[in-house]
């Protein structure tokens, strides 16, 4: 039998998946498996026979079936595969618009992140999630990247800027020019703040991110610059990944005072 045939055998029945998971917990007899997995005893017996044929399970002298090392490996890899598929499905909207920046994401990071997606009945869900994460109290450190001009983003950043806050924001040249045109007074006030540094990159930005007081966030936009999805988390691996993304953009930027015309 080929590996493809073995996989087809396992996924061809929910009872086979359930029996594999049950055996991963403890050895069982066919009757106990049938009761635990809500299937007929004959189904449990046929499944066990199939597992034994493939070297995944073995019958002990006391009549209990247990997974072999090979069966344990199949179970662990299968569960990981299921988690990967579920994560890809859950984050499909985000991945559709932010595929490039996710290519080098460490394994498992996306699975640790919350996902907020714009929907017909709640188109502003990602924005509301962003505002919740930023909060309304002064923060210690704020590092952000934005590919759009947004009054809401400007006001949320201003609300958390305290006397001791260290705030750094990176935009591309297009966003810089639009910001100067749309909000000239706010732009000049921000430049006068000692706690705030605006940096500009010559690269066209198509995603946003934020690292604020131990929380990381990455946002995806469609071709019309609409915020479509946002992923965030405070696990150390998540924050480290977002920080790496931020530094990769920062390395291409310069403070606005050093920007060449």
Biggest sheet: strands, sense, closure?
Answer: 8 strands, mixed
Strand % is 15-25%
CATH topology of the largest domain: Endonuclease, Chain A
Calculate the terminal CA-CA distance, rounded to whole Å: 67 Å
Pfam families: FilR1_middle, HVO_A0261_N
Protein name: HTH domain protein
InterPro entries: FilR1_middle_dom, HVO_A0261-like_N, WH-like_DNA-bd_sf, WH_DNA-bd_sf
Describe this structure in words.
Residues 4-90 form the HVO-A0261-like N-terminal domain. This is HTH domain protein. InterPro entries: FilR1_middle_dom, HVO_A0261-like_N, WH-like_DNA-bd_sf, WH_DNA-bd_sf. Residues 123-251 form the Methanogenesis regulatory protein FilR1 middle domain. By secondary structure, this protein is of the alpha+beta class. Helix content is 48%, strand content 20%. The chain has two domains: 3-84, Winged helix-like DNA-binding domain superfamily/Winged helix DNA-binding domain (Arc Repressor Mutant, subunit A, Orthogonal Bundle), CATH 1.10.10; 94-258, Endonuclease Chain A (Endonuclease, Chain A). The chain has an eight-stranded mixed β-sheet, with helices on both faces. Strands 1-2 form a two-stranded antiparallel ribbon. α3 packs across α4. The longest helix has 22 residues, at 69-90.
